[in-house]
Amino acid sequence: MKLIGTKQIETEHLLLRRLTVKDAEEAYQNWCSSDVVSKYVLWSKHESVDVTKKLYETWEKEYDTLSTYRWIAELKHTGELIGTIDVASKRFLPFGSCEIGYCYGEKFWGKGYAAEALKAVIRFLFEECDMETIFAEYMSNNPASGRVMEKAGMTFEGILRGRIIDKDGIRNDLGSYSITKDEYLNRLNC
Questions:
Q1: What 8-state DSSP symbol labels residue 88?
Q2: 180 DSSP β-pair partners
Q3: Among 102, 111, 160, 190, which is most exposed with the fewest C-beta within 10 angstroms?
Q4: Burial label, 48 (beta-carbon count in 10 A; 0-12, 13-18, 19+)
Q5: What are the pLDDT digits (tens) for 27-37?
Q6: Residue 112 lies in a domain
Q7: Residue 1 domain flag
Q8: Structural domain count, the chain
Q9: Is the pTM of this model over 0.90?
Q10: Which domain holds residue 34?
Q11: How far is Cα 105 from Cα 111, in angstroms, rounded to an integer?
Protein backbone atom coordinates (compact mmCIF):
# COMPACT_ATOMS: atom_id res chain seq x y z
CA MET A 1 0.00 0.00 0.00
CA LYS A 2 1.20 3.50 -0.84
CA LEU A 3 0.52 6.31 1.62
CA ILE A 4 0.08 9.38 -0.58
CA GLY A 5 -2.56 11.35 1.33
CA THR A 6 -5.69 13.07 0.12
CA LYS A 7 -5.65 14.09 -3.52
CA GLN A 8 -8.39 16.01 -5.29
CA ILE A 9 -10.81 13.81 -7.24
CA GLU A 10 -13.26 15.01 -9.86
CA THR A 11 -16.35 13.09 -10.98
CA GLU A 12 -19.20 13.94 -13.31
CA HIS A 13 -21.08 15.96 -10.67
CA LEU A 14 -18.65 16.32 -7.78
CA LEU A 15 -15.36 17.79 -6.74
CA LEU A 16 -13.86 15.83 -3.85
CA ARG A 17 -11.20 17.95 -2.20
CA ARG A 18 -9.45 18.60 1.08
CA LEU A 19 -11.68 20.41 3.53
CA THR A 20 -10.65 23.63 5.26
CA VAL A 21 -11.90 25.45 8.32
CA LYS A 22 -13.52 27.91 5.87
CA ASP A 23 -15.93 25.09 4.93
CA ALA A 24 -17.22 24.74 8.51
CA GLU A 25 -20.09 27.23 8.30
CA GLU A 26 -21.65 25.60 5.24
CA ALA A 27 -20.98 22.08 6.55
CA TYR A 28 -22.69 23.02 9.81
CA GLN A 29 -25.74 24.31 7.92
CA ASN A 30 -25.95 21.43 5.42
CA TRP A 31 -25.36 18.36 7.61
CA CYS A 32 -23.41 18.78 10.86
CA SER A 33 -26.35 20.35 12.73
CA SER A 34 -28.98 17.96 11.37
CA ASP A 35 -30.97 15.68 13.67
CA VAL A 36 -31.87 13.55 10.65
CA VAL A 37 -28.25 13.04 9.54
CA SER A 38 -26.90 12.45 13.05
CA LYS A 39 -29.42 9.65 13.58
CA TYR A 40 -27.37 7.43 11.25
CA VAL A 41 -23.81 8.24 12.35
CA LEU A 42 -21.81 7.66 15.52
CA TRP A 43 -21.27 11.34 16.31
CA SER A 44 -23.83 13.73 17.78
CA LYS A 45 -25.09 16.71 15.83
CA HIS A 46 -23.01 19.81 16.33
CA GLU A 47 -24.66 22.25 18.72
CA SER A 48 -22.92 25.28 17.18
CA VAL A 49 -20.78 26.19 14.20
CA ASP A 50 -17.87 26.54 16.65
CA VAL A 51 -17.94 22.77 17.18
CA THR A 52 -17.66 22.25 13.42
CA LYS A 53 -14.87 24.83 13.14
CA LYS A 54 -12.86 23.20 15.92
CA LEU A 55 -13.26 19.76 14.30
CA TYR A 56 -12.29 21.09 10.87
CA GLU A 57 -9.21 22.82 12.33
CA THR A 58 -8.10 19.44 13.69
CA TRP A 59 -8.92 17.64 10.46
CA GLU A 60 -7.14 20.24 8.34
CA LYS A 61 -3.93 19.68 10.35
CA GLU A 62 -4.23 15.90 9.80
CA TYR A 63 -3.54 16.38 6.09
CA ASP A 64 0.14 16.65 7.04
CA THR A 65 -0.02 12.89 7.63
CA LEU A 66 0.03 10.87 4.40
CA SER A 67 -2.25 8.24 5.94
CA THR A 68 -5.10 10.78 6.04
CA TYR A 69 -7.71 10.33 3.33
CA ARG A 70 -10.60 12.75 3.86
CA TRP A 71 -12.62 14.67 1.29
CA ILE A 72 -15.37 17.22 1.38
CA ALA A 73 -17.82 16.78 -1.50
CA GLU A 74 -18.77 19.84 -3.50
CA LEU A 75 -21.31 20.02 -6.32
CA LYS A 76 -19.41 21.13 -9.42
CA HIS A 77 -22.29 23.06 -10.97
CA THR A 78 -23.14 25.11 -7.85
CA GLY A 79 -20.13 24.89 -5.53
CA GLU A 80 -22.47 23.79 -2.73
CA LEU A 81 -20.97 21.51 -0.07
CA ILE A 82 -22.96 18.30 0.35
CA GLY A 83 -20.97 16.07 2.73
CA THR A 84 -17.77 14.23 3.53
CA ILE A 85 -16.20 10.88 2.74
CA ASP A 86 -13.05 9.45 4.30
CA VAL A 87 -10.98 6.50 5.39
CA ALA A 88 -12.73 6.23 8.73
CA SER A 89 -10.38 3.75 10.34
CA LYS A 90 -6.62 3.65 9.80
CA ARG A 91 -6.00 0.58 11.94
CA PHE A 92 -6.15 -1.74 8.93
CA LEU A 93 -3.88 0.34 6.65
CA PRO A 94 -0.74 -1.72 7.43
CA PHE A 95 -2.63 -4.70 5.97
CA GLY A 96 -3.69 -2.84 2.82
CA SER A 97 -7.28 -2.58 4.04
CA CYS A 98 -9.43 0.36 5.05
CA GLU A 99 -12.91 1.28 6.18
CA ILE A 100 -14.74 4.04 4.34
CA GLY A 101 -17.22 6.33 6.08
CA TYR A 102 -19.39 9.03 4.57
CA CYS A 103 -22.01 11.56 5.57
CA TYR A 104 -24.21 13.76 3.40
CA GLY A 105 -26.87 16.37 4.08
CA GLU A 106 -30.38 14.96 3.77
CA LYS A 107 -31.38 17.36 0.99
CA PHE A 108 -28.75 15.62 -1.18
CA TRP A 109 -29.95 12.07 -0.50
CA GLY A 110 -31.42 9.99 -3.32
CA LYS A 111 -29.59 11.84 -6.10
CA GLY A 112 -26.75 9.35 -6.62
CA TYR A 113 -24.03 11.63 -5.23
CA ALA A 114 -23.03 9.30 -2.38
CA ALA A 115 -22.50 6.33 -4.73
CA GLU A 116 -20.66 8.54 -7.24
CA ALA A 117 -18.27 9.75 -4.53
CA LEU A 118 -17.79 6.25 -3.10
CA LYS A 119 -16.97 4.82 -6.54
CA ALA A 120 -14.40 7.57 -7.09
CA VAL A 121 -12.75 7.03 -3.71
CA ILE A 122 -12.66 3.26 -4.27
CA ARG A 123 -11.00 3.83 -7.66
CA PHE A 124 -8.45 6.22 -6.09
CA LEU A 125 -7.60 3.86 -3.23
CA PHE A 126 -7.14 0.84 -5.52
CA GLU A 127 -5.43 2.53 -8.46
CA GLU A 128 -3.28 5.16 -6.76
CA CYS A 129 -2.76 3.82 -3.22
CA ASP A 130 -2.56 0.13 -4.08
CA MET A 131 -5.15 -0.80 -1.44
CA GLU A 132 -6.14 -4.49 -1.31
CA THR A 133 -9.54 -4.44 0.45
CA ILE A 134 -12.04 -1.67 1.12
CA PHE A 135 -15.01 -2.14 3.43
CA ALA A 136 -17.87 -0.10 4.87
CA GLU A 137 -20.62 -0.64 7.41
CA TYR A 138 -24.06 0.84 7.95
CA MET A 139 -26.62 0.70 10.75
CA SER A 140 -29.60 -1.52 9.99
CA ASN A 141 -31.92 1.45 10.54
CA ASN A 142 -30.32 3.06 7.47
CA PRO A 143 -30.63 0.55 4.62
CA ALA A 144 -30.21 3.34 2.04
CA SER A 145 -26.54 3.53 3.03
CA GLY A 146 -26.18 -0.17 2.22
CA ARG A 147 -27.69 0.49 -1.20
CA VAL A 148 -25.05 3.18 -1.78
CA MET A 149 -22.34 0.59 -1.08
CA GLU A 150 -23.98 -1.88 -3.45
CA LYS A 151 -24.30 0.74 -6.23
CA ALA A 152 -20.61 1.51 -5.79
CA GLY A 153 -19.77 -2.12 -6.60
CA MET A 154 -19.25 -3.46 -3.10
CA THR A 155 -20.39 -6.95 -2.09
CA PHE A 156 -22.60 -7.65 0.91
CA GLU A 157 -20.65 -9.66 3.48
CA GLY A 158 -23.22 -10.08 6.20
CA ILE A 159 -24.74 -8.70 9.36
CA LEU A 160 -22.80 -7.96 12.52
CA ARG A 161 -25.53 -8.53 15.07
CA GLY A 162 -26.26 -6.07 17.87
CA ARG A 163 -23.02 -4.13 17.42
CA ILE A 164 -24.26 -0.61 18.07
CA ILE A 165 -26.85 1.42 19.95
CA ASP A 166 -28.46 4.18 17.90
CA LYS A 167 -29.46 7.69 19.01
CA ASP A 168 -32.88 6.39 20.12
CA GLY A 169 -31.21 3.89 22.45
CA ILE A 170 -32.14 0.94 20.23
CA ARG A 171 -29.56 -1.79 19.64
CA ASN A 172 -28.85 -2.08 15.91
CA ASP A 173 -27.11 -4.53 13.65
CA LEU A 174 -24.40 -3.38 11.28
CA GLY A 175 -24.49 -4.40 7.64
CA SER A 176 -21.06 -4.94 6.11
CA TYR A 177 -19.96 -4.52 2.49
CA SER A 178 -16.53 -4.84 0.92
CA ILE A 179 -14.66 -4.96 -2.35
CA THR A 180 -11.24 -6.43 -3.07
CA LYS A 181 -8.73 -5.15 -5.58
CA ASP A 182 -9.13 -8.34 -7.65
CA GLU A 183 -12.92 -7.85 -7.79
CA TYR A 184 -12.45 -4.22 -8.79
CA LEU A 185 -9.97 -5.10 -11.55
CA ASN A 186 -12.16 -7.95 -12.83
CA ARG A 187 -15.11 -5.57 -13.18
CA LEU A 188 -12.95 -3.13 -15.11
CA ASN A 189 -11.99 -5.88 -17.55
CA CYS A 190 -15.55 -7.08 -18.18
A1: E
A2: 133
A3: 190
A4: exposed
A5: 999 999 999 99
A6: yes
A7: no
A8: 1
A9: yes
A10: 9-189
A11: 11
